């Protein structure tokens, strides 16, 4: 059973759907409505498909009217459900970064890599369900500048390396918003305070690139956005430059924590401990009143992924 919140319109024609991945409020999919057509941005996992279909029905979008399914990048919490969702949406085409397209058409290599990160195929299957291939004829590779027309509502693709090289963000001029995937960090709603949302980086393996991430954030800021639609999780509204600054400071903090960890067997644990310290200090500065245990528990999955990604980055730096 799910305790997910019901799909909700958070800005004109922008509907937030909880994909149910891991826990409520962790991973979103978005429905964007134009005149007579609509897009789904992010798919969650194969288990998320019923939540997305329910969101379409609840907000008056016929399955046949969905023209595009868009994934910001091919990490499985964003894209594992793409093939299964396409099977339910007869006219939809899948829009994906040129570097990610082949992994949607043949997920075998993607699954192999993810099994390494998540601890084996069984764990993977439990989290993501059956990752179905997307039919090649329904896949659109979307390089920088691609325009997607949703019945009078244009969406624009901006290449956004930094979290991954197969990552783009989706600009929605109608709401002055960006669907950021993992390019604007993660921000769980339970850490909102009077100071606003709390942002934390996501440095998942294997392509984290701090300077590229900074450049991608700055490119979005240049459009003077008023809203950011985060996959993890929900809409941030207002004071976007201030949020961006906090995020980029936290990215620098991650890099420092990685560099401070002694090489060898204990490195991963040392990095995770450094990130936990950074989280707890950051939340205290942010005026959050919960306990350390609550904070660390909410970010446990992220610490693990972030530390692994930072290790891959450190090793690449050492080789360069
Ligand atoms: Zn993610």
Structural features, described:
There is one protein chain. This protein is globular. The protein starts with 7 loop residues before the first strand and ends with a helix. It is built from eleven helices and 13 strands. The strands form two sheets. A seven-stranded mixed beta sheet has the order 1-2-3-4-5-6-7. A six-stranded mixed beta sheet has the order 8-9-10-11-12-13, with no helix packed on it. Helix content is 38%, strand content 19%. The chain has helices at residues 49-58, 76-79, 82-86, 101-105, 108-118, 121-128, 210-222, 240-260, 267-285, 292-298, 300-319, and strands at 8-11, 14-18, 28-33, 38-41, 66-70, 93-96, 139-141, 147-150, 153-159, 168-172, 177-181, 227-230, 234-237. Strand 12 and strand 13 (234-237) form a beta hairpin. Helix 8 (240-260) packs across helix 11 (300-319) and helix 9 (267-285) crosses helix 11 (300-319). It is α/β, with parallel strands linked by helices and 320 residues long. It binds zinc ion. Zinc ion (ZN) is lined by residues 75, 77-78, 182, 231-232.
């Amino acid at each position: 059973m799910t305790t997910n919140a019901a799909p909700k319109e958070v800005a004109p024609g922008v509907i937030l759907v909880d994909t149910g991945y891991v826990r409520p409020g962790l991973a979103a999919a978005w429905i964007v409505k134009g005149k007579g057509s609509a897009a789904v941005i992010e798919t969650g996992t194969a288990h998320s498909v019923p939540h997305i279909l329910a969101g379409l029905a609840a907000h008056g979008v016929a399955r046949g009217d969905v023209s595009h399914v868009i994934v910001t990048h091919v990490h499985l919490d964003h894209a594992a459900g793409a093939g299964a969702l396409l099977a339910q949406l007869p006219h939809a085409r899948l829009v994906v970064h040129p570097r990610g397209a082949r992994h949607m058409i043949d997920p075998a290599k993607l699954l192999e890599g993810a099994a390494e990160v998540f601890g084996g195929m069984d764990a993977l299957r439990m989290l993501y369900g059956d990752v179905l291939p997307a039919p090649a004829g329904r896949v659109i590779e979307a390089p920088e500048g691609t325009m997607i027309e949703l019945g009078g509502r244009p969406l624009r693709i901006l290449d956004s390396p930094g979290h991954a090289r197969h990552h783009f963000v989706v600009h929605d001029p109608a709401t002055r918003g960006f669907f950021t995937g993992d390019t604007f960090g993660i921000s769980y709603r339970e850490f909102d305070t009077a100071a606003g949302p709390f942002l934390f980086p996501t440095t998942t393996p294997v392509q984290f690139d701090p300077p590229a991430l900074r450049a991608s954030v700055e490119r979005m800021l240049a459009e003077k956005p008023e809203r950011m639609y985060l996959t993890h999780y929900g809409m941030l509204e207002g004071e976007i430059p201030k949020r961006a600054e906090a995020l980029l400071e936290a990215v620098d903090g991650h890099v420092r924590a990685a560099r401070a960890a002694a090489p060898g067997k204990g490195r991963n644990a040392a990095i995770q401990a450094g990130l936990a310290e950074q989280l707890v200090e950051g939340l205290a500065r942010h005026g959050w009143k919960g306990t350390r245990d609550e904070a660390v528990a909410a970010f446990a999955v992220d610490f693990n992924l972030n530390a692994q990604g930072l290790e891959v980055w450190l090793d690449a730096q050492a080789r360069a």
